[in-house]
């Protein structure tokens, strides 16, 4: 891991430079002074998505979901639990495919929930279907190890 990493604030979207060794120390945003890691997934719209995926130096996991989707709603607590276990090494985002249909089309989301893993601004892994927290954490750890 690099000496310092760029981390996008989940609150104000400012890009922060954080020493890699300081990630576990609950760093705060230099612009808004809020925590850079909340142990919860961050809901992002189309307007915020690209910055979070492209500018975070840590892997970014994205849950493409919709409010009408039963499996999506069932998986939401497990996804939140996974965020608590994976941060600060990984950022978790949620994209509502109904509100951000352009993102669903751009990434060819055909079924939901679909979990996509991005690193360095590009998609490196994808998994369709609901997962429990343990399976999700294991999938992310395996995919980031393989990339």
From TrEMBL:
> Which keywords has UniProt assigned to this entry?
Disulfide bond, Electron transport, Metal-binding, Redox-active center, Transport
Q: Which InterPro entries match?
A: Thio2_N (IPR049299), Thioredoxin (IPR005746), Thioredoxin-like_sf (IPR036249), Thioredoxin_CS (IPR017937), Thioredoxin_domain (IPR013766)
Task: List membrane-spanning regions.
Answer: none
Instruction: List the Pfam families hit by this protein, alphabetically.
Output: Thioredoxin (PF00085), Zn_ribbon_Thio2 (PF21352)
| Ranges where the Thioredoxin domain occurs | 12-145
Q: Which domain of life is it from?
A: Bacteria
Q: Which family does it belong to?
A: Belongs to the thioredoxin family.
Name-wise, this protein is: Thioredoxin
Source species, please?
Telluria antibiotica
């Amino acid at each position: 891991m690099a000496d310092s990493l760029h981390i996008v604030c989940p609150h104000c979207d400012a890009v922060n430079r954080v020493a890699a060794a300081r990630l576990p120390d609950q760093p705060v945003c230099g612009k808004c002074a809020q925590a850079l890691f909340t142990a919860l997934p961050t809901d992002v719209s189309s307007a915020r998505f690209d910055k979070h995926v492209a500018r975070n130096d840590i892997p970014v996991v994205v849950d493409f979901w919709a409010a009408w989707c039963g499996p999506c709603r069932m998986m939401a607590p497990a996804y939140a639990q996974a965020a608590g276990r994976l941060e600060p090494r990984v950022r978790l985002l949620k994209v509502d495919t109904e509100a951000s249909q352009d993102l669903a089309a751009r990434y060819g989301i055909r079924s939901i929930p679909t979990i996509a893993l991005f690193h360095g601004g590009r998609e490196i892994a994808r998994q369709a279907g609901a997962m429990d927290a343990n399976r999700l954490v294991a999938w992310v750890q395996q995919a980031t190890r393989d990339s």
